[in-house]
Amino acid sequence: MHCTAPPEPLFLLFQAILIGFCTPTQLSIYIYIGFLIPLFHTQFPIDTTNTPTYMASTITISNLSNICLLLLLLLHFNFGKSQLEVNYYSRSCPKAEEIIKEQVTQLYNKHGNTAVSWVRNLFHDCMVKSCDASLLLETVRDGSVMSEQASERSFGMRNFKYVSTIKAAVEKECPLTVSCADIVALSARDAIALLGGPSIEMKTGRKDSKGSYAREVEELIPNHNDSISLVLSRFQAIGIDVEATVALLGAHSVGRVHCKNLVQRLYPTVDSTLDPAHAEYLKRRCPTPNPDPKAVLYSRNDLKTPMIIDNNYYKNILEHKGLLTVDEELANDPRTAPYVQNMANDNDYFHQHFSRAILLLSQTNPLTGDQGEIRKDCRYLNAN
Ligand code: HEM
Ligand SMILES: *[C@@H]1O[C@H](CO)[C@@H](O)[C@H](O)[C@H]1NC(C)=O
Fold first, then answer.
1. For a substitution probing ligand 1, which of 234, 249, 354 has the most ligand atoms within 8 Å of its CB?
2. pTM higher than 0.85
């Protein structure tokens, strides 16, 4: 976990001076609280800003003379780590968010499915360690980088070349300033709004990874035929609760699934949980059990509103028209079914939880401060 940034020299200096002034009791309290702090960071990786004030005020009320303890704690929070912020680029590149939105909109107007790709990119990038643009790295011949995109889990992912279009526009305005990781996050945010989803205020300040994690992809991103239990545990592992997981899967209200990822529910026998009429439709879309991997054979996720992030997904899965195993199980598992019902009943409720869940996903364990780098070309590590 990249919970705490490496201590800065200034921090260490102040801390050393302060420690000299503290009584042994005060020091042991500081050390004790120091053990608790990482727990806060792991559970709420983003909102640590609220913690120091809360803790500090409790301490001030209980014992005003503990000034040195108070100072130590404040130092710990203010110097010990950097984090994501709203409008992180307001000084270094004030137009960054505007430029990204403009590019995402232009691309959407030309190729609507780019927006769908940005949503899936966020998932595939953030699930693997952190939202750090590791997904965008291409394989390098000398073997130093193996692309996550080559994994079977990335099957069907597309439009990566247009990430370069967005990055180029941002680089033109502010060279080497805006990370590819923030482009992944903000392009997903803007895409969601274009696809009729909620408008989300997103923090920035992510840094890019210095490598890809191709070997971890299959462990971290669930497969098309994985169970809801496995999916819940994967999300829980990165601090995403059951209701947020249900909301995130609402992304399957847009886009498509290739026959390759469907046929095991159709052949040799039709999965009995699948609506029979829908199964017939899917067999027409995917007429053979072994689809030619080169042929682009697929079904859309949501036949009624295929390009809108709405609660039609939940209505579909309640009618057993979900395409993936996880879609079907989501509607029937006792842990998730009540949320599915609520989201099917109320689109605003779905959007509210979708926003919350996208924020949780996008703030997973970010690289910040002097961790990572800001890539010049999202496809390659900076030369050094
Ligand atoms: C956790 C369980 C999930 C599984 C097992 C899963 C699996 C899949 C699979 C197999 C496809 C079809 C790929 C293809 O054949 O082309 C797909 C498509 C898609 N997924 Fe998921 N996914 C999951 C969660 C998510 C989440 C959390 C998001 C985003 C928040 C997401 C966004 C998308 C999008 C937008 C598409 C359509 C892509 C396109 O049409 O280009 N998925 N997913
Ligand atoms: C899921 O599908 C893959 C092929 O895509 C197969 O290798 C694997 O055994 C399947 N797993 C389960 C749990 O059915």
1. 249
2. no
